[in-house]
């Protein structure tokens, strides 16, 4: 029974199981060895392991279906023949070499890294092209090339992390130089020579930096500050080249105006200009002023008190006429900065005069911190009002102050001048009763921002003259343009001008008395309040504005200089295009008849006197014109007892000093009417010839 059961069991197991069971029963039991934990393979690399021994369990092929030995490091276990393995290794290397163009291009700005990587590719190509290369040679070449590729990535990242500022500046520079062709093509005009030369220089510096790359093959890496300087210049040019061109055009064709800025005057003096002043510049001595800066002020009638006047609340930019009265004291100086994108030589202009006749004047300037240069004032020099200026063609030119900033816009007429440079190096000695214009040659101007600093030479018992707004031009042919702006002379037309209008409010001029002032007129019906008229009052006559009579009063009011009747005058400057006889036209305000006398020192006994008609009120504005006697009294007599026969005044080509006053009428001095802008018109040659 027992035997029967055994046979039955064996039949259930089957023959195969029986054989195995039999074999197991005939051997010594063996303790099973646990399988090792799988270890993650490292990141695949293109460096295959050397050929292992084949056969059996020691490296044999674990895929019995292939019938070959096991190759655990073979990237394609199915290729078991040496030829197949060699072909696979060669293809792996060839594919890796195929990345050369893409990879090498990544390091165009890193010459040293690029060179090393290119060499690695070259070595790999040599191995790949070697028909006798072994499997080990090919695998080793792939490993070496991959290592070089990985190192290039690492080196680039390390360099960028360690030189972030340099990389940023360099990247910006690469983008900035793309504008080279466009920028340079737009600089063919002669006015832009300096811009083109400087840009060409900086584009050259940029090319040198970019050619050497961030990481040169030899030598030091670029200095970050040097890269930033070049990048900033070109980037600035890309953003502002049109402004630079406008600046160069303005300096060549016109001028750059820099109005005086009290904030740029360093001084211990803190007192303000006299509270009652309007003109702030006089043809009489100012004795020991305690202020060093003064600006023209416009006044108006106090509300409810027509005979009392107060300063206008918002002066704004009604006028920029101002003066620096003094540069006395240690470290006292006045400086200003201007933009220059023109030539390296320029011309500086400014109005000047003496505070008082006894002043011993001296003035010096520094350009961009260089050694001081003394300005030579000499009585032998010719002042602008004495020399003959050239014709003006009247074209309008926009000018700007700047910059950064180049920034205020001024319209001026294009003109030329025959002044010679040697004469402009010496300026006539200042006087109290005349405004003169200094002309100074500036050498070695920088491209960009320049700073001029004025002071009085130390160790000398001298004082500075009063000085006004500053003007810079890159040529000495623009004298007339400068004069016209200083004295606010406006030509009537571009070609062959025949008349000049003097804007009294905006032009430099001189009063003789503290009461003379600028008055904002608005008619009683308010029709012109949005565009008021500005008049000059208290010319001639007696009495003081606001009844200020004492020589020194409280509240910072000063009743000097003090002159009345025929000595209370207004001095203006008229820059006419031609010699000839000129009619005079202007607006005026007066209730009763009053007279005006215009005198010029250009020729002896050259004056015109006439009486304007009163309007029986102080709210109606009149317009006189000597050409047709509009609003001029012709039936009566002038102060001399003779009829107003003369209709014109003789003016010489160029600047003319014209003194306006009032004379006795009917044995009294009522004074002149309030007067507004004055227009001087040349008598036509036909009429002039007929009068001979």
UniProtKB/TrEMBL annotation:
Keyword check for Transport: no
Entry-linked InterPro entries: Hemogglutn_Mycoplasma
Record-annotated membrane-spanning stretches: none
Sequence ranges of Pro residues compositional bias: 31-53
Signal peptide, first to last residue: 1-22
Region ranges (Disordered): 28-85, 382-423
Keyword check for Iron: no
Haemagglutinin Mycoplasma domain span: 255-683
Residue ranges with Polar residues bias: 397-408
Keywords, sorted A to Z: Lipoprotein, Signal
Domain of life per record: Bacteria
Name the UniProt record assigns to this protein: VlhA.3.08 variable lipoprotein family protein
Gene: vlhA.3.08
């Amino acid at each position: 029974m027992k035997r029967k059961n055994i046979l039955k069991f064996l039949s259930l197991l089957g023959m195969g199981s029986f054989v195995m069971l039999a074999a197991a029963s005939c051997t010594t039991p063996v303790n099973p060895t646990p399988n090792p934990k799988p270890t993650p393979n490292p990141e695949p690399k293109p460096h295959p392991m050397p050929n292992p021994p084949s056969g059996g369990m020691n490296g044999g092929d674990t895929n019995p279906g292939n019938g070959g030995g096991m190759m655990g490091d073979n990237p394609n276990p199915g290729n078991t023949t040496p030829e197949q393995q060699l072909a696979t290794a060669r293809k792996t290397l060839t594919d890796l070499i195929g990345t050369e163009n893409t990879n090498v291009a990544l390091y165009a700005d890193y010459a040293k890294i690029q060179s090393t990587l290119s060499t690695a590719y070259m070595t790999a190509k040599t191995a790949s092209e070697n028909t006798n290369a072994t499997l080990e040679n090919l695998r080793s070449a792939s490993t070496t090339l991959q290592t070089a590729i990985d190192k290039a990535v690492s080196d680039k990242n390390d360099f960028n992390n360690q030189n972030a500022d340099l990389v940023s500046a360099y990247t910006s520079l690469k983008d900035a130089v793309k504008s080279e062709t466009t920028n340079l093509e737009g600089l063919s005009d002669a006015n832009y020579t300096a811009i083109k030369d400087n840009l060409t220089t900086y584009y050259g510096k940029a090319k040198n930096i970019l050619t050497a790359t961030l990481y040169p093959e030899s030598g030091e890496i670029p200095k970050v500050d040097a890269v930033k300087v070049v990048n900033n210049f070109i980037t600035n040019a890309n953003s502002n080249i049109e402004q630079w061109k406008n600046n160069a055009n303005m300096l060549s064709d016109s001028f750059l105006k820099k109005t005086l800025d009290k904030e740029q005057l360093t001084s211990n003096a803190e007192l303000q200009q006299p509270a009652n002043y309007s003109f702030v510049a006089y043809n009489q001595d100012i004795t020991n002023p305690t202020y060093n800066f003064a600006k023209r002020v416009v006044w108006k009638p106090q509300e409810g008190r027509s005979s009392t006047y107060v300063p206008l609340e918002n002066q704004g930019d009604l006028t920029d006429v101002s003066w620096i009265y003094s540069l006395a004291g240690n470290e006292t100086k006045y400086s200003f900065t201007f933009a220059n994108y023109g030539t390296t030589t320029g011309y500086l202009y400014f109005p000047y005069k003496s505070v008082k006749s006894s002043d011993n004047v001296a003035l010096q300037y520094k350009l961009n911190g260089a050694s001081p240069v003394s300005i030579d004032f000499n009585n032998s020099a010719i002042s602008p009002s004495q020399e003959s200026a050239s014709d003006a063609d009247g074209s309008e030119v926009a000018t700007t102050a700047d910059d950064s900033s180049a920034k205020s816009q001024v319209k001026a007429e294009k003109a030329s001048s025959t002044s010679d440079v040697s004469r402009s190096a010496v300026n006539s000695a200042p006087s109290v009763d005349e405004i003169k214009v200094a002309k100074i040659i500036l050498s070695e101007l920088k491209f960009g921002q320049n700073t001029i600093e004025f002071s009085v030479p130390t160790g000398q018992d001298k004082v500075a003259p009063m000085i006004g707004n500053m003007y810079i031009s890159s040529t000495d042919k623009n004298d007339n343009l400068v004069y016209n702006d200083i004295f606010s002379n406006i030509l009537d037309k571009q070609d062959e001008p025949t008349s000049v209008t003097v804007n009294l409010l905006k032009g430099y001029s001189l009063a003789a008395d503290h009461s003379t002032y600028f008055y904002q007129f608005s008619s009683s019906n308010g029709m012109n309040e949005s565009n008021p008229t500005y008049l000059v009052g208290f010319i001639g006559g007696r009495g003081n504005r606001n009844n200020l009579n004492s020589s020194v009063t409280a509240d910072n009011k000063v009743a000097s200089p003090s002159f009345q009747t025929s000595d209370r005058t207004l001095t203006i400057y008229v820059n006419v295009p031609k010699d000839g006889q000129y009619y005079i036209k202007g607006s005026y305000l007066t209730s009763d008849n009053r007279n005006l006398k215009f005198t010029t020192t250009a020729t002896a006994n050259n004056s015109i006197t006439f009486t304007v008609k009163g309007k029986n009120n102080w709210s109606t504005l009149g317009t006189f014109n000597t050409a047709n006697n509009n609003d001029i009294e012709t039936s009566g007599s002038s102060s001399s007892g003779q009829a107003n026969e003369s209709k014109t005044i003789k003016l010489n080509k160029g600047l003319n000093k014209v003194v306006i006053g009032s004379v006795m009428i009917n044995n009294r001095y009522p004074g002149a009417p309030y007067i507004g802008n004055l227009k001087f018109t040349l008598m036509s040659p036909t009429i002039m010839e007929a009068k001979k």
